Amino acid sequence: MSNMNDNNPNLSALSGKITEKIIKRLGISEKDIEFNKKAKTVVLITPDFFPRMSNEIAYTTNEIAKNLAIKGINTHLITYDPLKQGQIDEVAGFKVHYVGNPIRTYSPLTWSLTLSMEISRVIADIFHEEGNIDLIHAHEWLTFPAGMHLQAALKKPLLVNYYSIEHIRNPGICNGYTEAVKQIEWMSSVKSKKIFVNSDFLKDCIKKHYGVKENKINILDLSAEDFDKKIVRDYNWVVREWREIMEK
Amino acid sequence: MEGNNGEVKNNGKKEGDEKKITVLHLSWEYPPHKVGGLGTHVQNLSKAEVEANIQPIVLTCGFNGNCGISLEDGVLVYRVDADGIPAEDFFSWTLQMNILLQAASAEIFSKYKIDLIHAHDWLVTTTAVALKHIYRIPLVATIHALESGRYGGIKGDRQMMIHDLEGKLVFEAWRVICCSNFMKYSVVGTFCCPEDKVDVIPNGVNVSDFEFDYNRNEFKRKYAMPEEKIVLFVGRHVWEKGLDVLIGAIPMILERHPEAKFVITGDGYLRGQCESLANQIAPQGKVLFTGYLPDKELKMLMKTADVMVIPSRYEPFGIVALEGLAAKTPIVVADTGGLGEIVRHEENGIKIWVDNSESLAWGVNYILDNPERAKQIVENGYKEVKEKYSWVSIAKQTRQVYERILAEYSRVNWKPRFNFWEKRNGVSELGIKE
Fold it and tell me: Taking all residues of chain B, what is their mean pLDDT, rounded to a whole number?
């Protein structure tokens, strides 16, 4: 249909007029249309968060969630904490959902792959309770399996945040474990709409090892003055792009 | 229950009134990929479900390039490409394979309205549980065996993980299906699962698969001399199958029946040990290890054998016993697990004590000593297997479980808040040709 409209300017103008009339009749303002293309409910998934862990991942996710909440975005953060599993805390305007892993595992890989069903359960509950999720932002490869499944099932865009990659953590080592982690990292880089990293060095590594295009990777600089604006702008861009793809 | 014209069933419900139920089966095995009996079970069940007004969709693994979508006897089969998944070991491979199942399931759910998810064993737990919560539809689990039973306890971290995955599947399932009362009480006892949450539906066998003509005498010559009596063992050469119990019984059987010939099919980690033990205690040429045999060859061998022995230590069901009965061969089974429930002593088979070579030798000698009695036992067994263990009957029982769950589900508030996808077709509308 779109090809037909493109070829025929009269038809294209006519469909535009019809759309305008419908919008007018329904009382939808242009502001509403733009608002619908913005991220309103965001889910962050992180393996580490305060108080259980205090590291770069916990700090970054906290900063993002805090700033999103200030901007009025409904933000949920899902994290692992066996002592607080099942609890939902309200921290600085955003909600923190704690999950545990009911499966006793023997490696980070099996831990990540079994934890993913618990993460999926909690995010699915948010989806059903709140009515929608606009975007899923997964931090570090341990949460990527859950992120990928939710993206496919809920049909929502996925963003991934790398803090390191397996090629850096275990350089030159090639065994079943490292290859499995590399595959998860690579699959996520392909399936995500945008990738965030913390340095130029990591950006180059991802480009080199996973063949990702430069414009798909953004450097997240928490110290930048307009950090909050940038992250919201990136989120909105992803949501807009995703909606356009889904509408097509 | 059945009316005059045979149409009215299930308390006045007409057969045509039955709602079509669409079920997503999750199983890592599905023919042609077979490791144990799981794949065959899922294949036979799903094929029979088509007859019971159920639309089965099977999500499974494909190997050696055999992946994609196909319609096989009315069953829509999705095979994900499971070749070349990097992993630390088989257990983490299984979990990695679930990532692929999850990706494929999203495609299935976007096309079809699924009423129920039916998961088979721990290998698909992560996908099954996640799907249940994402789409908010009921999950049914069939527990075919337990890790604690397979190895006589939980002895390492890998086994612990499997044990926990089994427990999680049982916990999350709306209802659990087990193939025997033995398995039911194993699940209830191991996972503190409520007794009334578990249904017992036996495994089945296609009797028609054993109804074919062949030249018995000519075939027998491949495995034994014409005057010899074949004592057949079918199973994996692992501890729980008790092959060593049979090897221990060989001298006692040969003492009374020197014409006995022991044919041992299958393979496993105990093969080497069992072979060397058999060479030490039995005269040369009296014990034959064949390895795995093709399906048809194995069926012919079952029909040709004079007695089949199943000396298992742990057997959740024992489908091989049903195959023996369908092949009209007398069976001697250890009184354990599901085997003890299938066989009634001297009615449709011979029961022996578990892990006891003397008892096994007695059972085999009894059958070889009393051919007329054996014939009667075989007739009883064949009649029973035809009536009670047909896949059609099993699919009907499974449908009753599905119906019960859907009726309960319709009364609860736990439902998807939104209609995820506007257009979901029935499988028949897909247009895939067999």
Answer: 90
Pick the CATH number of B207-388 from 3.90.1150.10, 3.40.50.2000, 3.40.50.2300, 2.60.120.200: 3.40.50.2000
Please indicate if any CB of chain A lies within 8 Å of the CB of B165: yes
What phi and psi, each to the nearest 5 degrees, are found at residue B324?
A: -60, -45
Match 């994996």 to its residue by tokens.
Answer: B236
pLDDT at A1 over 90: no
Going by pLDDT thresholds of 50, 70 and 90, the confidence category of residue B9 is: very low
Please report, for chain B, the start and end positions of each structural domain, with discontinuous segments joined by +.
Answer: 8-204+390-414, 207-388
CA distance A229 to chain B (A): 32
Please name the residue of chain B whose CA is at the shortest distance from the CA of residue A116: B126
In chain A, count of helices (H) and strands (E)?
10, 8
Nearest to A120 among B88, B125, B134 (CB): B134
* Assigned CATH topology for domain B8-204+390-414: Rossmann fold (3.40.50)
Per the model's pLDDT, the better-predicted residue between A149 and A36 turns out to be A149
Task: Please give, one letter per residue, the 3-state secondary structure of B172-209.
Answer: HCCEEEECCHHHHHHHHHHHCCCHHHEEECCCCCCHHH
Partners of residue B86 in chain A, C-beta under 8 Å? 176, 179-180, 182-183
Average pLDDT over residues A77-99: 95
A177/B95 Cβ within 8 A = no
Choose the closest CB to A110 out of B95, B130, B131.
B95
Residue A94 sits in the same domain as residue A203: yes
Considering only CB atoms, which chain B residues are within 8 Å of A176? 86-89, 92
Are residues A181 and A84 part of one domain?
A: yes
pLDDT of residue B1: 34
DSSP state of B415: S
* Region for A93 from its dihedrals, namely left if φ exceeds 0, alpha if ψ lies in -120 to 50, beta otherwise: left
- pLDDT tens for B33-59 read 887 778 989 999 999 999 999 999 999
Does B330 sit behind a cis peptide bond, omega within 30 degrees of 0 on the bond before it? no
Whether residue A183 lies within 8 A of chain B, CB to CB, comes out as yes
**The whole model's pTM is what?**
0.85
> What digits encode the pLDDT tens for the residues A190-233?
999 999 999 999 999 999 999 999 999 999 988 888 888 999 99
Which chain A residue's Cα is nearest to B171? A102
Please state, in angstroms and rounded to a whole number, the distance separating the CA atoms of residues A77 and A69.
11
Distance CA A160, CA A61 (A): 12
Q: Which residues form the domain of A13?
A: 1-36
**pLDDT value of residue B425:** 45
Contact B87 A155 (CB under 8 A): no
A-proximal residues of B, 86-115, CB under 8 Å: 86-89, 91-92, 95-96, 98-99, 102-103, 105-107, 109-110
How far off is chain B from A228, nearest CA to CA, in Å? 31
Q: Would you place residue B426 in the very low, low, confident or very high pLDDT band (cuts 50, 70, 90)?
A: very low
What is the C-alpha to C-alpha distance for residues B324 and B317, in angstroms, rounded to an integer? 14
Interface predicted TM-score (ipTM) over 0.90: no
